[in-house]
Structures are given as C-alpha cells and as structure tokens.
Amino acid sequence: LQPIPPSADFQFHLAEGCPAFFSGRDRPGLPGKRVPFGAEAPSLFQRQSLRLVMEFALSICLGLALAACCGFRVFVPLLVTNVAYLTGYLSPNAGFEWMAGWPAFAVLASATVLEIAAYYIPVVDNVLDAVATPAAFVAGTVLMTSLVDGGDPILRWALGLIVGGGSAGLIQAGTGLLRLGSTATTGGLGN
After folding, report:
1. DSSP assignment of 44-95, as one string?
2. Of 62, 68, 101, 103, whose CB is crowded by the most CB atoms within 10 A?
3. What is the 8-class DSSP label of residue 101?
C-alpha cells in the first residue's frame, strides 16, 4: 500500500471499492472540472443517450405508478393525468391527444365523483367492484401506454398491457376481495 499524497484529491468508488485519484490540475478543454486519471469525459452522444434512457425509465415509472393507482380508483389517475396535460406539466404522446382536452376533463371529473360516491353504498360498492376490475385493467393499460415516452409502438403497448394493465388489475382484484370480505363479515355495514 502506498500512502495518499497530501496534495491529491480522491473520490471513493463504491462499485469498485477503491479510491480513484484525481490530478491537482484541470484537463485542457474542461475548465473547472477534474477528471480521474485515465478517464475521458463522456461525449455528447453518450450524454444524450443517457438522458434518453433516463427519460424512458422515468416515463415507465410514472406510468406504472399511475396504472397501479387505477387499481384503487379507476378514474382518479386518469383525471390527474388529464389535469397534468391541461396545465402543461405533461405532454401527451401521439394518439393520446384526446386525454388533454376539456371534454375529457368533464367526463373524467364526473366519473370520478360518481365512483367515489358509489363506494359509500356497500351494495353498489360490490357491484362497482365487479365492473371496476376490467375497467382498471383498461385504464392502467391506457395510462401506461400514454406515458411511455417514444420508442416502438409495439413496445409501448406491450408495456402498457403487461405492466400497466397487469398491475392495475392485480391491485383492483385484491381490493375487491378485501371489500367483499369486509362486507361479508360486517353484514354489509362496513366497507
């Protein structure tokens, strides 16, 4: 082992488990940045590729999260996405521009109010669960597909069906079974 020279800066790399030493001077062409010995700065292509990969991964995470929420309430995540489109926080992918309009807002807001109100009536709640399971699958698929950024349409729809629809349908089926058990054990008084 050699001692670390007092003038050298170092950074501990967790993946490799060893310190990487940096030169005390900046490399030409990279003012204000220190680069480890033997390492090259990422090219513009590498930075853009990393940005695209991160955007794709984040769009999948957002789609999965909203699709899973469709398992609890079918129309609330669709309404939230519509409001995000209307306010400019998100932009719809090609083919999903209908989700960014005011008619969609009116329909989704009405459906959300009716869905939430119906869950307070135990008998209607169980009937709504029977209808909501396939509706959650469809809503999860649409949300996931509409939020996955770019790429091949076959990949987008496959992710939407498998990940989005699957997670929404699974969560909806689980909550429906829990509500059915709750209604059965409380004689219809609890939900």
Report:
1. HHHHHHHHHHHHHHHHHHHHHHHHHHTTT-SHHHHHHHHHHHHHTSS-PPTT
2. 68
3. S
- 76-90 pLDDT tens trace: 889 999 999 999 988
With a CB cutoff of 8 Å and minimum separation 6, the contacts of 116 are: 73, 76
Which tokens sit at 179? 């509500």
Residue among 189, 57, 62 at smallest CA distance from 123? 189
For residue 36, the cross-strand partners are 22
On whether the CB atoms of residues 149 and 84 are closer than 8 A, the answer is no
Tens digit of each residue's pLDDT (9 = 90 or more) over 53-71:
887 787 788 777 877 787 7
Q: Give the relative orientation of helices 102-118 and 122-147 as an angle to the nearest 10 degrees.
A: 150
Query: 3-class SS at 188?
Result: coil
pTM: 0.64
Average pLDDT, the chain: 76
Residue 145, CA distances (Å) to 38, 97, 102, 112, 136 in order = 42, 13, 21, 21, 14
**Rounded to an integer, what distance in angstroms lies between the CA atom of residue 93 and that of residue 152?**
12
